[in-house]
Design brief:
- Helices cover about 60% and strands about 0% of the residues.
- The protein has about 70 residues and is mainly alpha-helical.
- The longest helix is centred in the middle third of the chain and has 30 residues, at about 25-50.
- It is elongated.
- The model has no long low-confidence stretch (mean pLDDT about 90).
């Protein structure tokens, strides 16, 4: 989804869709794109860290003691 938003926004910039907008609007657009790219990088890095962590060995479940009332 992020790549579709990024691609369509960049295509809109290249085709002049944002030409008549104010400087504040353009800076908000640039900030939003930067935030979108940063979030994708963080999500990718977290996936890398999840795969790099060693898996915990399968331990049997702890015994449960049942008490009569």
């Amino acid at each position: 989804m992020a790549s579709a938003i990024l691609f369509s926004t960049l295509l809109g910039i290249l085709l002049g869709e944002w030409k008549g907008t104010s400087g504040r609007t353009r800076s908000l657009l640039a900030g939003g794109l930067a935030l979108l790219i940063l979030s994708a990088v963080i999500a990718g890095y977290s996936g890398y860290l999840g795969k790099a962590a060693p898996a915990a060995p399968d331990a049997p479940p702890a015994p449960v003691e049942l008490r009569a009332r």
